[in-house]
Amino acid sequence: MSEAAGKPVPVPDKLTEPFWSGLGEGELRLQRCRSCGHWQFYPRAWCTACASLDLAWERASGRGEVYSYTVIRRHTAPWWVRELPYVVAIVQLEEGPRLMTNVIGSDPDSVRIGQPVLLEPVPAADGTMLPLFKPA
User: Fold this and answer.
1) What percent of the chain has a predicted confidence (pLDDT) above 70?
2) Which residues contact 105 (CB under 8 A, 6 or more apart)?
3) If you ran DSSP here, which 8-state letter would residue 22 be given?
4) Is 78 strand, coil or helix?
5) Confidence at residue 4, expressed as pLDDT on a 0 to 100 scale
């Protein structure tokens, strides 16, 4: 992570660049093993199911459900204080992997475990698109 205008922003590297460029095109791309079919997130050099090195980047559906969440109501960093309250969630993707994200576009107190959500890429301060989710 680096900081642009104070708020941390992602720094893509060789391994994660396909994920970030996919978000820039409005889609969620995940690694999928060509040997066993396993979907995985976060990006790695090998399959976490079978250890194969034969991985491909594929477009995921962008659909999932809230696996767990919390509503953040207090923060000390000025760039986060402006966004209070906000939801930090673990989203279980339709393809299987889970990722930590924010649920946006609704009252934070209305978010529920099991709630269907859809990908909503949102730009960070430097223009990098972030994988946020909204209620489906």
Assistant:
1) 96
2) 120, 134, 135
3) H
4) helix
5) 47
Pairing of strands 129-135, 116-123: antiparallel
Per the structure, the complete domain to which residue 111 belongs is given by 2-135
Distance CA 62, CA 119 (A): 5
Task: Encode pLDDT of 46-93 as tens digits.
Answer: 999 999 999 999 999 999 999 999 999 999 888 888 889 999 999 999
pLDDT at 94 over 90: yes
CATH, residue 113: 2.40.50.840
Q: Which residues contact 96 (CB under 8 A, 6 or more apart)?
A: 38, 39
pTM for this predicted structure: 0.91
Number of domains present in the structure of the chain: 1
24 backbone dihedrals φ, ψ, rounded to 5°:
-65, -25
Task: Find where tokens 């959500």 sit.
Answer: 117
Question: CA of 96: how far to CAs of 31, 39, 101, in Å?
Answer: 12, 7, 15
- E strand or H helix at 18, and its extent? helix 17-24
Burial of 118 (0-12, 13-18, 19+ CB in 10 A): middle
